[in-house]
Predict the 3D structure of the following.
Amino acid sequence: MREPLRDRGRLLHIQDAIDTILERTEKMSYDDLTADKILFGGIVYYTMIIGEASYKLSKVFKEKYTDTDWEIIANMRHHLVHGYYQVNALDVWNVIQQDLRPLREQISKYLSETDWDAWEQQDFDYTK
């Protein structure tokens, strides 16, 4: 049986998803993003990864790092998944333009300042 993914792994998934989105959209306009449904769907997919990984972080981790609004990030994921038929492309574009870089900085900070050997020795409940 595979070991459950822990906080560090989820943060790395968030970081990778952000990097993927930013690299792909770096020289892109809003019109470029919305003109290609497959590209837009891919961006939405990676945004959902960010939300899902954020949602699955341990409660203890989220309570320790309150600079990040984990609930808003998770809610974005829920909206993209369950409200797929009403995803607003401008909202996705605004997340790319305004939110991902600051979130990337926060995630990098959390990854570098956490003593992962000590953190991962703790037995957190990842089901909540």
Remarks:
- The chain has a mean pLDDT of 91.
- Helices lie at 7-25, 30-35, 37-56, 59-64, 70-82, 89-113, 116-119.
- The chain has one domain: 7-111.
